[in-house]
Design goal:
about 300 residues; 3 domains; five-stranded mixed sheet; 12 strands; alpha/beta; D-Maltodextrin-Binding Protein, domain 2; Arc Repressor Mutant, subunit A; about 40% helix
Length: about 300
């Protein structure tokens, strides 16, 4: 299939507007002979003379008059598509965004994000979803606008990422727990009753490996699929929850926290999105809102 030369639309629009080959040539910075050839080609393609001689000038045919407004609108629409996006009117923005977040993020940072977004753009609606897996399919198909999480091998290679903050794991127990006082050693930590967090039901994780590297074994008596559940159990029992410190900052009120007595590497929590959203002004604004809200909550400069 041979595609039509869409440049002819611009030529036709100028010819019908000017009603003169010479003036059209000057406007398009062409020679009169080149414009005449372009008019001849248009006549051949469209099967109509389009402009015919009347005295010393040219007049449009009925077919040309019929098409003039339509052609002009098409050219204006094409020019609008090819221009850079207009400056974003945040106050007038009416749009919904879906954010998929790892466990605890919405509870700790969601209120700050909502306040910031609502102050800037009252017409924007946010939908928060819990992140139940590490698949990036939602970003690819457009059902998810933004995600937060730790970069991993399962993430699509095309996904964009911006670091939000560094985080470390800590131990958390209820107020009045025996671990609230005294030196925390690796032996004491491992011997306590632990609740393990594992979305995939794995029996070993980074914390277990860190305890094993110290020549010990963690005494796990319960497993849950998220940090919220782990903290809920620890709050009402003698269980020890191991959670990321900054990620769960809004969930540990009234509880006792302590640094790990074994080495567990820090993690970087990142903001994730698909590259097709890179240049969208509304999406750029939303990403900045999330970044600023996290910094405000954590007191980062």
């Amino acid at each position: 299939m041979t595609l039509p030369d869409l440049n002819l639309l611009v030529t036709l629009d100028v010819l019908l507007t000017e009603g003169s080959v010479a003036r059209a040539a000057k406007r398009l910075q062409l020679s009169p002979s080149a414009m005449s050839r372009a008019l001849a080609r248009l006549r051949e393609v469209m099967g109509d003379p389009l402009l015919v001689r009347a005295g010393r000038g040219l007049v449009p045919t009925p077919r040309a008059l019929e098409l003039q407004q339509r052609v002009g609108d098409l050219v204006k629409d094409a020019e609008a598509v090819l221009r850079p996006a207009k400056l974003l009117d945040v106050k007038g923005l009416v749009r919904s965004f879906t954010l998929r977040n790892s466990d605890g993020f919405t509870e700790s940072f969601g209120p700050h994000i909502v306040r910031r977004v609502n102050a800037d753009a009252p017409g924007v609606q946010l939908r928060f979803m819990r992140k139940l897996d590490r698949s990036s399919e939602g970003l690819r198909d457009g059902s998810i606008d933004l995600e937060t999480g730790v970069l991993g091998r399962t993430l699509g290679p095309e996904v964009r990422a911006k670091a939000l903050f560094r985080d470390r794991f800590i131990g958390v127990v209820r107020a009045g727990h025996p671990f609230e006082h005294g030196e925390m050693t690796a032996e004491r930590f491992a011997a306590g009753n632990h609740v393990r967090v594992s979305q995939r039901g794995m029996e070993r994780g980074p914390i277990d490996e860190a305890v094993k590297a110290a020549g010990l074994r963690r005494n796990v008596v319960a497993s849950v699929d998220g940090y919220i559940a782990a903290l809920a159990l620890a709050r009402q029992s003698d269980l020890i929850a191991s959670v990321p410190e900054r990620h769960t900052c809004a969930l540990r009120d009234g509880m006792c926290s302590f640094p790990f007595p074994v080495y567990v590497p820090e993690v970087t929590v990142s903001l994730l999105w698909h590259p097709r959203q890179d240049s969208d002004p509304a999406h750029q604004w939303l990403r900045q809102c999330v970044l600023d809200a996290c910094k405000a909550q954590l007191g980062d400069n």
